[in-house]
Amino acid sequence: MGDAGENLAAAALKKQGYKILERNYTTPLGEIDLIARHEGDLVFIEVKTRRSDKFQDPRDAVTPAKQARLQRLADYYLQRKRLGEVEIRFDVVGITWEEDQPRVNIIPAAF
Description:
The chain is an alpha+beta fold. The protein is 28% helix and 41% strand.
C-alpha cells in the first residue's frame, strides 16, 4: 500500500506544479519519501497512507520525533548534494482510502 500511496502522491503533486526530483531517497539515517521543487522551494515530502481515517488521520502519524528525523535527513541531503543555502520546507501528503477511492490531502509547510 505504501508504494501505491507514493505513486498517488507523486501524481497529485505533479498536478499542483511540483517537480519530483527524488523518490525513496535512502540515506544511512533513513529514507525520504519524495523530494521536489515547488514555487522556488526544495520540498521534503512525507507520505502517509491509511485504509481509512477511522482510527487516525494520516497527518497525525508525523510525530515530533518523525519531524526531527526528517529534518536530519534533509540536512544530510543538502550536504550530500552540496546545495548550500536554499529555501526548504516540509510537506505531508495524507492518503486515505474510502470505498476503494483514494482521498489525497496535500499539506504544504506542515511543520
